[in-house]
Automatic annotation (TrEMBL):
The gene is fliS. NCBIfam families: fliS. Keywords: Bacterial flagellum biogenesis, Cell projection, Chaperone, Cilium, Cytoplasm, Flagellum. GO terms for biological process: bacterial-type flagellum assembly; bacterial-type flagellum-dependent cell motility. It comes from the Bacteria. It is found in: Cytoplasm, Cytosol. Pfam families: FliS. The keyword Nucleotide-binding does not apply. This is Flagellar secretion chaperone FliS.
Amino acid sequence: MYGSQTPGTPGRNGANPYQTQAVETSSPQALVTMLYDRILTGILRAQNAEPEGDLETIHRELVRTQDILMELTITLDRERGGQIASNLASLYQWCRDEAIKANISKDLSSLDDIAFVIEELRDAWEAATSRLTSAAG
């Protein structure tokens, strides 16, 4: 109906069908890890675009990073998450603010700090979900 498409190539909306399937079939826990990884990918792409002066890529990747951080913030369950959810919201907001500043000024020096925070969160998240999976199984 939408025409033929080679597996693994972007579709009409630019999404890779394998990535789309991975997202649609992943657990909520795995989705959070994917979002953290996508933030780190975006930061790396922005940093790699800086020497070439590729402002379009820098802007696109930092806006995507900001969007992911906003999504992570609004999906926090603050009732059940209590202080942990509140602390995560503060960290996400700080990272988002820094990404906005970097995008406006095109000074990417703070991106390493954002990456450090996200890597720490991703590692802690993976450890926690691994323990939960082990305890449940």
